[in-house]
Amino acid sequence: MSDSEAGCRSRPAGRRRRVRAWRLVVALLLASLPWLAAAAAAGSGAPHAPALRDYAIDAWTTRNGLPHNSLRDIAQTPDGYLWFATWEGVVRYNGVAFTVFDRGSEQALRDNGVGALYVDPRGRLWISDSRGNVGRLEADGRWAYVERMPQWPQALVHDMAMDGQGRMWLLFEGHGLGRVEPDGRLAYIPPPAGIPLRASFPHMAVDARGRVWIGTLDGLVMLDAAGTWHRFGRGEGLPAGLVWPYLAPDDTVWLAAEGALFRVDGDRIVAAHALPDSGHVTTMLVDRSGALWVGTENRGIARIDGRGADWLPPGGVLPRGRIASLLEDAEGSIWVGANGGLFRLRETLFTGFTRRDGLASDYVRAVLEDRDGVLWVGNGGGLDRQSGDGRFDHVALPGAGGEEPSVLSLAEGTAGDLWVGTFADGVYRLRGDGLLRHYTQADGLPSGHVRAIGVTADGTVWIGSRRGVVWIDAEAGADGVQPPPAVPGLPQGLVTALAGIGADLWIGSVEGASVLRGGRVEKIDLDAAGGGARSVFGFRQVDEAVWISTDRGLYRYRDGRVSRVGLEQGLPVDAVFQLVPDRQGEAWLSSNRGVIRVPMDALQLVADGRLPVLPRARLHTEMDGLPSAQGNGSSSPPAILRRDGTLWLATAAGVARADPARLPRYLDRQPPPAVIESVHRDGQPVDWTTRHALAGGGRIAVSYAGLSYLLPERIRYRTRLLGLDSDWIERGTQRNVEFIGLPPGDYTLEVDAAHPDGAWSPRPARWSFSVRPMWWQRPDVQLLAALVVLGGLFALYRWRLRRYHARNRRLERLVRERTADLQAQAERLVAADRERSELLEKLREQAEAYGRQAREDALTGLPNRRHFDEVLARDLALVRRGGHPLCLALLDIDHFKRINDTWSHSVGDAVLREAAQVLAAESRACDLLARLGGEEFALLLPDTLLDEALLVCERLHATFRERVGWAGIEGLRVTFSLGVVACRPTDTAASLLERADAALYRAKDEGRDRLQAG
């Protein structure tokens, strides 16, 4: 019987059977109460998983690459791949693409109808199909099948399970059991008399005692280790009809029946949970936290933990129909295989609320909780209010032209009124459920862009406009909008943030930050803390300080002093919209690139100057459940902390909620494991699972993946090819790499993966291979070619030698026939040739001497200015091309003229020669020491950072100071002043010398005999 037929079995009918069923439900409820109480007590100190409503749910169907929408089974292999069993083959998923293996694949299956998947203790994937075939995926990527014996049923293998002896048990549809021994032998156990194996259900389990538990449509059966069959039913408290087993990771055997769950405790069957109105339970899962998940025939999914059962019904995201399989992957996500596609429930730190939850618009600008605990959301579609069931109800506001206004800001007055600022429709004042007043231009309100509303302690409502602040004395019953106070220094442009902190009004604008205090305006000097902030987006008082959110990070104002925490101090973004401290000591910062979470204490320490950078700043994005990483600034409030401790944020795709108390459940993710998926050489596939010797030349293309299923399209990659390059090369999100024309040799390709802003995998994926030389690169061919060339050269030599001897004999005859004057002429020619050679040798020696003189200082023997300029140009080219560090030091002997005037120029020359010898002896071999002229020397330090250059210069300085008796004159001390600079990428030779010279002159101006870094 197929699983579809089994699902269509009719339920027990008749009043008597319904009464028995309800009695069973009541008994199970009573039995489960102690367990629920104990679980709740045990888990009271740990944060719970969120409600199923708060899980992010992703879905895939045939439109996304699945070959079939019914997924019978799901498995994950140790390498991280997910595998799905369908009626059209087995599917491998890497987070981005589905790879289908079927009868038409290169690694073909024997049948497309895959019945079950099983990952054995060695990490090998087993599959079964509808024709009784059982196969295993080998390390080389090939499917190895168990060869069937004649009596082996050609029927669907419902399920597989391996016992402690390594024997694989198989459950055939309507044909009993099979067993594959570790040595490959097969055993078939036909259905025994009285045991309803022919009506089996596609679930079996083998427990730690070797007992094989099998579900059937007529109760539970078990084959013990001794080979004895047992049948269980009403005598053990089980209901009539379908009962099937599930083996949990802790080796507990659970039993599922209609409306109830049981647990095997030794030799007893114990009632565990009642699931009224659940219908048929079709699949189960115990997750890593001990929660029990169940899938049903047509009632959706339930999670059972210490708080009871939480249901995710069908019809919203889940389809109506059978939940066939459940799996928790290595990252804690729950995968659901249904008759209508593949689904993934992902626990996220943030929960998004959008138009599907009742919001008028997903573009949210402001969130506010009033004194009654009601949450208000301002968005592009107007104003919404959260109701008791968590959904949002729209609050109508009259807008221009009959359209709902776009809400930019919210505030609550001291009397409890709600003030609503809009983009182009003025300000609304609400009391209770009704509109109290609508302020427009007719009331004195400047037109457009009410991005901020602030309320001070005296009840004054301040409204930020495009032309500064206006105010309404709401407590005094004033009915109109008052113009800005006549106070010098108030901002006159667009106001982007307002905050009433006590009696003071903090004002943020495109002109910076200021405070209206006691009838005076104090301008906050943000420039004093650096960063160059211009636009202010929010204020937050924390203890005795006010934190200011700007387009250049956070500024803290305390006791009249301003300090900054920005990009340079470890914040991952520049612009921050709002800071919200939670009750766990964390600060949450909204921005356009996500939500930054940092310890509040660390912010204080960095602002105090006691820490140079933030030790931990975590950026949360869509991967953490945010509807959008883009928060909305220049509106208020963009983020709040509610009384229940939850954090709410406005984003460009909805409003987001996070519970900081659940952070312990949401620790930093492990880096995704990297895998190599395919290798092609010149378009032809290569079996990369074994070491290969590839023919030389051609193009090698390698595809790889990082096996994470949490926004896998944003995983970063890097590669390096050992044997060619020892450095990692960042590939961004690129999932392949190509090598063309690799030289012969041995190579290992390493691939690493990381989440955005996360750590790299500790163990990269590796593929080792070698490249064979082309035929002309082979040593034997090269040796043969060398022998042929040598043979040819030898033959040519012999031929030319014979010709020479013949010619020589002719010349000898001619010489004897020549007269004595010809002999004398020959001697003169030889003498002239000798003289010419001697002259050429003298000219060469003279040219070499001129060359040395052109690049060598005559007095000291050091390279001169010309040689120095050539090397400096070369090193600057290396800096621009490869980013190598470079430092330049200029030094000048102090009071050298006094030495010449006191002791004579010959003594001065001797001092210069000795100085050159000392400097050359203490300089490194890789450095260039040159005399630029007079008493000025230059030291060029390639591949050297400024700190290292200063150490070299300090050593030279110390050597000079220790030496006495220069030029043989007792008591004569010689010192020098030195300026050293590090090369910048934009430096030219002239600019680098100019900066070094400036540093040298600062050293002289500060008293000489010292070093100065520029």
Concise overview:
This protein has 1014 residues and is of the alpha+beta class.
Would you kindly provide a written description of the structure presented here, covering whatever features stand out?
- The protein is of the alpha+beta class and 1014 residues long.
- It is built from ten helices and 69 strands.
- The longest helix has 39 residues.
- The N terminus is likely disordered.
- Among the domains are: 302 residues, 7 Propeller (Methylamine Dehydrogenase, Chain H); 94 residues, Immunoglobulins (Immunoglobulin-like, Sandwich); 76 residues, no CATH class; 156 residues, Alpha-Beta Plaits (2-Layer Sandwich), CATH 3.30.70.270.
- It has a five-stranded mixed β-sheet, with no helix packed on it. A five-stranded mixed β-sheet has the order 66-67-65-68-69, with helices on both faces.
- GO terms for molecular function: diguanylate cyclase activity.
- It comes from Pseudoxanthomonas kaohsiungensis.
SSE blueprint and pairings:
Layout lengths: L2 H5 L7 H28 L13 E5 L10 E6 L5 E5 L2 E5 L4 E4 L12 E6 L5 E5 L4 E4 L5 E3 L11 E6 L5 E5 L3 E5 L5 E4 L10 E7 L5 E5 L2 E5 L5 E4 L10 E5 L5 E5 L2 E6 L2 E7 L6 E6 L5 E5 L4 E5 L2 E5 L10 E6 L5 E5 L2 E6 L3 E4 L10 E6 L5 E5 L2 E5 L5 E4 L11 E6 L5 E5 L4 E5 L2 E6 L12 E4 L4 E6 L2 E6 L21 E7 L2 E6 L2 E6 L2 E5 L11 E7 L2 E6 L2 E6 L2 E5 L12 E4 L4 E6 L2 E6 H9 L9 E3 L18 E3 L5 E5 L2 E5 L15 E8 L2 E3 L5 E3 L4 E8 L9 E7 L6 E4 L3 E5 L4 E10 L10 E7 L7 H39 L2 H36 L9 H18 L3 E8 L2 H8 L1 H18 L5 E6 L2 E7 L3 H17 L13 E7 L6 H17 L5 E3 L1
Parallel strand pairs: 58-64, 68-69
Antiparallel strand pairs: 1-28, 2-3, 3-4, 4-5, 6-7, 7-8, 8-9, 10-11, 11-12, 12-13, 14-15, 15-16, 16-17, 18-19, 19-20, 20-21, 22-23, 23-24, 24-25, 26-27, 27-28, 29-55, 30-31, 31-32, 32-33, 34-35, 35-36, 36-37, 38-39, 39-40, 41-42, 42-43, 43-44, 45-46, 46-47, 47-48, 49-50, 50-51, 51-52, 53-54, ...
Helix pairs in contact: 7-8, 8-9
Pfam family, one: Reg_prop
Keywords: Coiled coil, Membrane, Nucleotidyltransferase, Signal, Transferase, Transmembrane, Transmembrane helix
InterPro entries: Diguanylate_Cyclase, GGDEF_dom, Ig-like_fold, Nucleotide_cyclase, Reg_prop, Rev_trsase/Diguanyl_cyclase, WD40/YVTN_repeat-like_dom_sf, Y_Y_Y
